[in-house]
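ugh ok fine here u go
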Amino acid sequence: MTLSELQQAVDQFDRARGWHAVDPAHIGLHLLEELGEIARELLRRTAYKGGDGDIAQEMADLLILVAKLANRLGIELEPAVSSKLEELNRRFPVETGKAAIDRYNATLKEPRED
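structure:
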């Protein structure tokens, strides 16, 4: 599914239920809630108690809410994401990015290799 297809599917889902007019601020609050659930699950998995939640479902919730907010604000995600990736490639060339991750890994007790 492309980002455009995702936005269309979310729009159809919302319109069928009358949810397409939800205030963008409320969608933003739901985004924060979902992001918090993802953060909690990551904490459980990496440093805490061992995770058993379905992080894929939480990430799907987050992506759906991003599409919903983009729809409400009239933003087409595909060109926005493409433009942002081009900007990031200009701002962070490969060599710069590799140097940055080396500095990051040096701060960790157990550097990640993946």
